[in-house]
Design brief:
Layout (H helix, E strand, L loop, with lengths): L12 E2 L11 E4 L7 E4 L3 E6 L4 E7 L8 E2 L8 E6 L5 E6 L4 E6 L4 E8 L6 E2 L4 E2 L5 E3 L5 E5 L3 E6 L4 E7 L11 E3 L4 E6 L4 E6 L5 E3 L2 H4 L8 E7 L4 E6 L4 E6 L9
Parallel strand pairs: 10-12
Antiparallel strand pairs: 1-5, 2-3, 3-4, 4-5, 6-10, 7-8, 8-9, 9-10, 11-16, 13-14, 14-15, 15-16, 17-18, 18-19, 19-20, 21-22, 22-23
Length: about 260
């Protein structure tokens, strides 16, 4: 069932089905109004108000670019990761082609770079820290920090300290397709590894990789391009969107990953 959107383009306003998106890559629920969602489009953040039958611009523009600012004055270039704080006050987004992470105040609509674009993976605080090709984001369970997946490393951003650190440099054998990323109650990261066509859990404390049963969901024929995922604790499973297979799949996970650390 299509909730909103119809054709490729850039259109907001009344009527969900009349809205137009260029390339929606990311979505998250508004925790204050669980029937509504934020959508990360190619160069804008949109708010889908299902109760008010309206799509509104939060920030960005139909034109791509690289600029902090308020509302339509901000510019992005390929938003692919999007998460929202539990209080609903702050969005965090990965701006892939600009190689940066930004925060958005959902009240003022102010966009602020918190990890600058640059060459290489530099740890530290803004503006000296940098990230390359950031993809998906995922909060740790306490929401004191969030994880960033990229083609080269798993990074960690400490929200209180406003500091970026490198948690794990990925070896060429384990260079993953960084679309899919989620965190379990035990603070293990669930990731997709493109080179081995399998799913792994990563211990967030030690960085140890553990292969998740290939016989169940690690075979290439079962997965093509997992593009996003969410973990449902009550189901002891992850629900995964595969953009090449055009479907949502249920992936059972080991019980030990649901024991709070």
């Amino acid at each position: 069932m299509t909730i909103c959107g119809s054709f490729s383009g850039f259109k907001n306003g009344k009527g969900l089905r009349a809205a137009e998106f260029t390339q929606p890559n990311a979505i998250c629920i508004d925790p204050r109004r669980p029937l509504n969602v934020y959508v990360g489009d190619e160069s804008s953040i949109r708010y889908v108000d299902t109760t008010g039958n309206e799509v509104r611009l939060v920030a960005g523009h139909k034109q791509t670019g690289h600029k902090d600012g308020v509302g339509a004055k901000a510019r992005f270039n390929s938003l692919v990761g999007l998460i929202c704080s539990k209080d609903g006050n702050t969005l965090y987004l990965s701006d892939y082609n600009n190689h940066r992470i930004v925060s958005v105040d959902t009240t003022t609509r102010a966009v602020t770079s918190i990890v600058a674009g640059g060459v290489g993976c530099r740890d530290g605080k803004f503006p000296t820290c940098s990230v390359v090709e950031p993809w998906k984001l995922a909060f740790n369970r306490s929401e004191s920090a969030f994880w960033i997946s990229s083609s080269f490393a798993i990074r960690r951003y400490d929200i209180k300290e406003k500091e970026l650190s490198t948690h794990l440099i990925l070896k060429p054998t384990f260079r993953m397709n960084p679309y899919a990323l989620a965190v379990t109650p035990s603070d293990h990261l669930i990731v997709w590894c493109m080179s081995t066509s399998a799913w792994y859990s990563i211990d967030s404390k030690t960085g140890a990789f553990v292969l998740l049963s290939e016989s169940t969901f690690g075979k290439r024929k079962d997965w093509l391009v997992p593009s996003d995922m969410t973990i449902v604790d009550a189901e002891r499973a992850a629900f995964v969107v595969d953009c090449s297979m055009h479907c949502v799949l249920r992936m059972p996970l080991p019980d030990k990953l649901f024991v709070a650390s």
